[in-house]
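Box 3.1 — From sequence to structure: Acyl-protein thioesterase 1
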Amino acid sequence: MLSQRLPHFNRPIMKVTIAGGSKVESWFDIVSLDPNEEREDEVGLKRSVTDLMELIKKEKEQFSGRLFIGAVSLYALAHQTDLKVDGVIALSGFLPMRKKLTAVANSDTPLFMGHGTHDPVVPFQWGRESHSILASKGLKYSTFKDYPGLPHSCDDRELEDLVQFIQSKIN
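Predicted structure (token representation):
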């Protein structure tokens, strides 16, 4: 079963600015979803990438595929030269530190991005723009799927597309 072959990573509990400083599960501090906001938590992003890379290394012996999942994965795909995974998945996500990106560090790593058109948390346009930025900066193998009417969640349409992507990387 696929779910038994995928490692599960829990996000740490931390104060998140956009949540009014409340402690919530998050890989890094999200300061704002305003595209003009200059402040971003680069230190937190780098820490999370390092932590996830360590978890992936520990899981390699038990996990046949190597997929990196989430907004932190988009940062790692774009900026981390030591990222060695078979694919990256970002659902309802965005590319942090996009203004600093000059070229995608892992341009041959396949990417699947899915985003609901009615996402009230991470605006749909952020997802689409993130994908466009990655493609314009050299990402070679990427898929962006939009899901009409879907909020910040997942449904059968997205899961079917996701399973196809994962199976193509594991098999």
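Summary of the box: Residues 1-7 have pLDDT under 50 and may be disordered.
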